[in-house]
Design a protein that fits this description.
The structure holds two protein chains of two kinds.
Chain A: E1 2-7, E2 11-17, H1 20-26, E3 34-35, E4 41-50, E5 53-57, E6 63-66, H2 68-85, E7 91-94, E8 96-100, E9 103-111, H3 118-127, E10 130-134, E11 137-140, E12 145-147, E13 152-155, H4 166-170, E14 174-176, E15 182-186, E16 196-197, E17 204-210, E18 217-220, H5 223-231, E19 234-235, H6 241-254, E20 256-262, H7 265-275
Helix pairs in contact in A: 5-6
Chain B: E1 14-17, E2 21-26, E3 29-34, E4 39-43, H1 45-53, E5 55-60, H2 61-72, H3 79-91, E6 95-98
Antiparallel strand pairs in B: 1-5, 1-6, 2-3, 3-4
The chains are: A alpha+beta, B alpha+beta.
Chain lengths: ~280, ~100
């Protein structure tokens, strides 16, 4: 028996697999950060292999049967929904959450539209002594704010930008797109630092804009401009939109705010070090 | 439209905040959520003060301007700025002109 562990902010789901092969098929969902201060409820979900198909019963009683990808989709739906329910009244910011290993309280949110270079920069930061708490959402709540646990999702094309980590990324669990190209599920622990997620304040927010092939340039931006950019990357709770939006603005008033035109990665990291961390 | 946005307000007009709005203070003003329109508004500190003066106490534009001049230590009453702010608040559905009573006319 082997377990695939998937932690959320409330639960630790343990997929109890009948053998190593099934566990390997489901390993893409493995998410095992240390979540500081969280008392996770353990939920064991036995997985059965039956005639080439896998079968599991979800906590809500629903039976899920099919290929590994089908089971992972079902679990992913639960995990995603929990992100909205974990902290009542929270806003969900679509961003990477990073901290520097020497200043673990200096939390930085990296925000950018798809294609802006979030994953590329994240891998580079991971290579340069930064710890990544999460690569998808930061949950901004009334009392607690914390990154949602999720591994980095890395396409093969990003490997060239993280040569030091390429071997570890290629050894990470993967799924394949219909084209056959792999998508890796990469634990931030591949950098050698433990994957640790702690609740806390945001010190800096950096908005990425792609400048592929060009230079990188970082410059401060005002609260209004930052809020305008952040609103399009934020999901609000059904109840309490006003207070959640006010918390978003309050966070931006307190934090340092920069726009990073992302081109050359060396220069980008250097400028981040000088201005943000 | 009742023409409130188009005409200039006179000094005796009174204003009241629209119903159903959720107001949350921030360090630099306030955020107002209009659930019916699904719109989020941010008011800077001065606009937040003017919005706060539309609190049902039936303050006239004249009273608001006098209050603001005193509060901010101004030599002149900020009549045009207050009018402009009220126009914006009305256009955004945050404030509405309030019918004056016969005693107020």
């Amino acid at each position: 028996m082997r377990e695939v562990v998937c932690r959320t902010l409330r639960h630790e789901y343990r997929l109890v697999c009948p053998d190593a092969e099934v566990a390997n098929d489901l390993a893409f969902m493995e998410t095992k950060p240390e979540i500081v201060g969280a008392a996770l409820e353990v939920v064991s979900i036995p997985v059965f292999a039956d005639g080439g198909f896998l079968r599991m019963t979800l906590p809500n009683g629903a039976l899920v049967e099919g290929a590994a990808s089908h089971l992972m989709s079902a679990l992913h739906a639960i995990v995603y929904r929990e992100a909205f329910e974990a902290i009542s009244g929270a806003a969900l910011i679509h961003c990477v959450t990073a901290v520097h290993s020497e200043r673990p309280d200096a939390r930085i949110l990296i925000v950018g539209a798809p294609g802006a270079g979030k994953t590329t920069l994240t891998l580079r930061l991971l290579s340069d002594g930064y710890a990544i708490e999460g690569d998808e959402h930061f949950v901004l709540g009334p009392e607690i704010s914390i990154a949602r646990p999720r591994t980095l999702r890395v396409k093969a094309g990003s490997l060239a930008f993280a040569p030091k980590l390429a071997a570890a990324i290629e050894a990470s669990p993967r799924i394949s797109f219909s084209s056959g190209a792999p998508l890796y599920s990469v634990s931030p622990a591949i950098s050698g630092l433990p994957w640790r997620i702690a609740p806390g304040e945001v010190e800096s927010v950096v908005f990425l804009e792609a400048n592929h092939g060009g230079l990188s340039r970082i410059e401060p931006i005002g609260v209004d401009e930052a809020l305008r950019r952040l609103l399009s990357e934020t999901s609000f709770p059904q109840d309490g939109v006003g207070p959640a939006a006010a918390r978003l603005r309050t966070m931006l008033v307190k934090a340092r705010r920069h726009a990073l035109l992302l081109g050359d990665l060396n220069r980008a990291v250097l400028q981040l070090r000088r201005t943000v961390l | 439209m009742d023409g409130a946005e188009e005409r200039a307000f006179d000094f005796d007009d009174v204003f009241v905040a629209c119903e159903g709005l959720e107001v949350t203070p921030t360090p630099d003003g306030c955020v107002i959520y209009d659930a019916a329109r699904e719109r989020v508004h941010y008011l800077n500190p001065t606009a937040a003060v003017i919005y706060g003066l539309c609190d049902g106490a039936r303050r006239s534009l004249r009273a608001m301007c006098a209050f603001l001049a005193q509060a901010y230590g101004l030599d002149q009453q900020p009549v045009e700025a207050t009018r402009d702010c009220l126009k914006t608040l009305i256009a955004e559905g945050l404030v509405r002109p309030c019918a004056k009573s016969s005693a107020e006319r």
